[in-house]
């Protein structure tokens, strides 16, 4: 039997967590959840005002620090600057949540353009690589850390409008598994959370249009909430998941490929 009580394994006091795309939807819930467990949080987003609003609200509600960092994760320099700012402000980077992701928003692959691919893959896959590459040297120096990357049901196929985005999510899975091997000896874990359809600003319009049809694909017959995903992200980053790395965890109410 472990000597550490389970609740203590979810204590992130004095740990520094950076969340990309932290100003909205799932990322916002992730920021709030870590703050609620005592972490200092960097809300890293391309939308500076929204990030500031989230960081201010966290500092009002929780006894932790929260900072807003304007960043575009598709740029390596910006990603590196974001990580450096986090380390300068908090003294470490213990958890990196590569939450930012973007779909092409075209109804089929053939309709999409190379510009769409650059945008979607730039944020969804290059964003993950950029931030991870910038954070890992710090985690190696600290001899520990945790990275959570994102997939989605789209990487399992069946939706032409998500071909490019789904490809980038599949790339995140392969990337995570391979890098986990490289840095495991430094007590660094990398995992993937794969959300099903979750109600956020990104999906609101689409869900409004197709709610009943979407629900048919889910065994639990409800859509996800940002908190459903944030809880799993916090679990994967916690000491309760100490021996989990290079893994993909689907949080999707039992997605049945239609
Ligand atoms: P959202 O649109 O509500 O939030 C995304 C945030 O990312 C926004 O605050 C946006 O400003 C920020 N962002 C966009 N481009 C950025 C960039 N270049 N650099 C930094 N920040 C940037 O999205 P969401 O629905 O909360 O999705 C969060 C993650 O979950 C994404 O990776 C998404 O692919 C994944 N996901 C979502 C769903 C869903 O149904 N909502 C399903 C599967 C996977």
Automatic annotation (TrEMBL):
MF terms (GO), sorted A to Z: oxidoreductase activity, acting on the CH-OH group of donors, NAD or NADP as acceptor
UniProt record similarity statement: Belongs to the short-chain dehydrogenases/reductases (SDR) family.
Name of the featured protein: 2-hydroxycyclohexanecarboxyl-CoA dehydrogenase
Organism of derivation: Natronorubrum sediminis
């Amino acid at each position: 039997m472990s000597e550490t009580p389970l609740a203590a394994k979810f204590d992130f006091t004095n740990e520094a967590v950076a969340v990309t795309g932290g100003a909205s939807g799932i990322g916002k819930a992730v920021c709030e959840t870590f703050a609620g467990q005592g972490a200092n949080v960097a809300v890293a987003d391309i939308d500076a005002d929204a990030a500031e609003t989230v960081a201010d609200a966290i500092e009002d509600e929780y006894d932790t620090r929260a900072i807003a960092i304007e960043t575009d994760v598709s740029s390596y320099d910006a990603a590196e600057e974001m990580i450096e700012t986090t380390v300068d402000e908090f003294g470490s980077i213990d958890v990196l949540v590569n939450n930012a992701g973007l779909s092409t928003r075209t109804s089929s692959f053939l309709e999409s353009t190379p510009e769409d691919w650059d945008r979607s893959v730039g944020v969804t896959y290059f964003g993950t690589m950029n931030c991870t590459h910038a954070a890992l040297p710090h985690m190696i120096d600290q001899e520990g850390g945790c990275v959570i990357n994102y997939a989605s049901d789209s990487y399992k196929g069946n939706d032409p409008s998500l071909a490019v985005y789904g490809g980038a999510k599949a790339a995140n899975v392969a990337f995570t598994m391979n890098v986990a091997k490289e840095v495991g000896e430094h007590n660094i874990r990398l995992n993937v959370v794969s959300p099903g359809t979750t109600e956020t600003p990104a999906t609101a319009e689409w869900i409004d249009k197709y709610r009943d049809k979407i629900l048919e694909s889910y065994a639990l017959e409800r859509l996800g909430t940002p908190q459903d995903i944030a809880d799993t992200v916090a679990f994967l980053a916690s000491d309760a998941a100490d021996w989990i790395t290079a893994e993909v965890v689907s949080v999707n109410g039992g997605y049945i490929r239609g």
